[in-house]
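[retry 2/3] Aminoglycoside phosphotransferase family protein: previous attempt timed out, resubmitting with same input.
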Amino acid sequence: MALHQDEIPVGEQVVRALLTDQRPEWAALPLTPAGAGTDNTMYRLGADLLVRLPRTAEKAGALRKEQLWLPRLAPLLPYRVPEPVYAGVPADAFPLPWSVQRWIPGDEVRPGTVEDWAALGADLAVFVRRLHAADLLGATRAGPLSGYRGGSLHPCDTWISAALDDCRNRIGDQTDVDTLVRLWRDALTLPEPAGPHVWLHGDLKPTNLLVRDGRLRAVIDFGGLTVGHPDAEHAPIWDLPRPARLAYREALGVDDVTWARARAWALGVAASGVSYYWDTFPAFVAECRNRLREILADAG
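[retry 2/3] Aminoglycoside phosphotransferase family protein: success.
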């Protein structure tokens, strides 16, 4: 099902046509669906490769960021990250840039793949600390690296408040939206973030974390790569159980004000996810609602 109004349909036939045209040596390899996020459709290619195709023209820029910056960032990071191996170009079969990366084995973070959630939270903190300490390599908060999650809460108030209103209509009988609104409004009164800009992954949710034997081994999907303030980077920690959250915060030493802003980012992005994807992506809506439950549990 399409998630966006301007989405470009993709199927195996499209991927085969692209490979035949641009990388014929790969065209006969086995091709299997490998998941679909809000930004990309993915196919595993053979045993060692992954094809990623943006859903819309707006999302194509994220692949270019990965191709440009991941080879330079990878040596600075403690866990494996995607390795671009081919930058596909627009063609008759598909009018946008696309990408081929190395396949990274591992399990997504979820109940059943992780037993020690505190250890996972500490592992994630190691990654975040190293990423935020990494040299900017000349990058600045401009153009594709100026994503909203690296800035202030205030410019997002209009659409996040509208999303919270929509949540009241859709899930208000099951969710304490009044408390979510209060947490959002309280965060808007906090001091603005300060300090130097850092690299931000931008979307450290469980589906972008790969584990082996329950411990973090890789971080994937750098399409949200941004330079900015780190508050929103911490937001996906509310997608994980409380022991992971506590261990993560303790390991990073996140202060109360930064934590409150991070929580506001967490609830704002989750509320907008419920609103935007309500009719098209129920699995993602469920993830967003779980995040809201965790936020309310903490607030209580």
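[retry 2/3] Aminoglycoside phosphotransferase family protein: The first strand starts at residue 31 and ends at 36.
[retry 2/3] clearing retry counter.
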